[in-house]
Amino acid sequence: MQRLLLSLVLVCASSAWAGPEWVRGKIVEPPLERQVTIQHEAIKSIHMRAMTMPFLVDEKVSLKTFKVGDRVQFSVQVDGEHLKITALKHTR
What we know:
Layout: H1 2-18, E1 23-27, E2 35-40, E3 51-57, E4 71-79, E5 82-90
Parallel strand pairs: 3-5
Antiparallel strand pairs: 1-2, 1-4, 2-3, 4-5
């Protein structure tokens, strides 16, 4: 029983140390003021399959340097009934 508890503690701790999940994708529509549509890979942390969808964007994230065709990495959080991008960066 103690080993099981220790294992659970270690699994929870290691996922907390890992930080937010970064997801790869490509911008497929011109970004709007607080929304961007991305064709993205599966988002494992929320059990979402790969798809193309619009995301809300946190007000702390600037979309000024992003355009259609840009390859990106982003992290999201569940915000009520929506997914909100909390970090966004260019990739190659």
